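> forwarded from #structure-qc
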């Protein structure tokens, strides 16, 4: 056998090995693409929804604090933050009291959207109280309520807090 034949055989062997490597790479990529595409929505990580119980506790006495909101807003104002400090102070001084949080909305517009907005406001207030150290078991949410009557709409856009 001549060196020319050896070179030809080596070239054929290297070409064959190259083709095998290319086939393995293409097969691996194809498998990965097909596997990724076969996942369903149920395979995706699911968002965890926090369920917060709304209680049916009748409010007692006057509200300790009323936090007011702008139309369509659930953001707590600086004045609202200051108001909540008063509730935190009372709750810290009397560790057996329950803080009852009630969100209100007016009767105008879409009732379901208004109720959801009132709930978001109450949840925001609840979160501030929890962050300030009031125990979760002490903060109770009431179902959002519509303010009836001929009062001012600004009065309806509020969250009331009572300690009982």
């Amino acid at each position: 056998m001549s060196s020319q034949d050896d070179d030809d055989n080596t070239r054929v062997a290297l070409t064959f090995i190259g083709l095998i490597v290319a086939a393995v790479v293409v097969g691996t990529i194809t498998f990965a693409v097909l596997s990724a595409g076969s996942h369903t929505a149920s395979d995706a990580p699911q968002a965890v929804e926090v369920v917060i119980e709304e209680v049916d506790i009748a409010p007692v006495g006057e509200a300790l604090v009323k936090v007011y909101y702008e139309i369509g807003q659930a953001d707590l104002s600086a004045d609202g933050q200051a108001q909540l400090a008063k509730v935190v102070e009372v709750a810290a001084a009397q560790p057996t009291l329950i803080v009852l949080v009630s969100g209100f909305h007016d009767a105008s517009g879409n009732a379901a959207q208004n109720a959801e907005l009132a709930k978001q406001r109450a949840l925001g207030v609840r979160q501030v109280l929890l962050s300030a150290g009031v125990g979760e078991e002490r903060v109770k949410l009431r179902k959002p309520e519509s303010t009836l009557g001929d009062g001012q709409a600004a009065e309806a856009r509020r969250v009331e807090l009572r300690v009982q």
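QC bot note: The first strand starts at residue 54 and ends at 55. Residues 100 and 140 are 5 Å apart (CA to CA).
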